[in-house]
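DUF429 domain-containing protein (Allopontixanthobacter sediminis), 295 aa
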Amino acid sequence: MTPQRFRHFVAIDWSGAAGERHKGIAVALCDAGGEAPQLVRPDHVWSRTDVLDYLGWDLPPDSLVGMDLGIALPFADCSAFFPGWGDSPPTARALWAMVDRICEDDAHLGASSFVDHPVASRYFRRHGGREGDLFQQPGALHRRGRLRVTEGRQAALGCTPYSNFNLVGAAQVGKSSLTGMRLLHHLRGTVPVWPVEPLPTSGSAIVEIYTTIAAIAAGRRAGRSKMREAGELNAALAKLGSHPIDSVKPLDDHRCDALLTSAWLRKVSDRPELWRPGGLTDEIARTEGWTFGAV
């Protein structure tokens, strides 16, 4: 990776919540200079299909896009996404297709049909104390739920990753990940997703992000990574070499996450070690994927 490989840097705070439009979705953009990142369509309440359309049709050229979701489920710990299920897919791309196929009647890129599927549901922890009998696996490495290899690297950085099979609690990312897989499936052939797909030598690419990693790089503690006002956001942006934002529009933690992570992507995208992290094998790339910045 060489400096200025990308000309634009987009960070998307995603949502797996039910319904069409979500205040929890925020999209931020900055260019390769030091100017402050800006919210994309700041007065708009995004839907997941809006984001799909933006990525497919309106994405600036040569954009590095970070999406705050898990691009796959754990695989390496049990050599399968769904151990014991004959239909368990062999790769992340096949997993995306499976989730989208089962959820084809779910509106707004929802994923309720997948988590309620008579077999798939056995692997998830759902609301109402409904923990599937296969949520804990005999070969799994973590008693609190299966984690991917990259999530172990997240923990080493001071983050607190949750299993993508967990759908309960404010910090869960399982719903975001499953709805995001539907989006990634619909983008096939349009924008490659690293490392599931090779990083192209030109054009745009999507990576998985964990916004806490960006906050830590900007001098925030993992437990205080969330920001909700311009003063603390600008202090963090300064740590990343970015100009401050000058917008007086209301901010929330979703918008701050997107703005800060956009600037972080710009600062670190040319670091070769982030594209070749230790532990990322070809098999893991094809199945579990990786979180950009988790080294």
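The first strand starts at residue 8 and ends at 13. The chain has a mean pLDDT of 94. ok done for today
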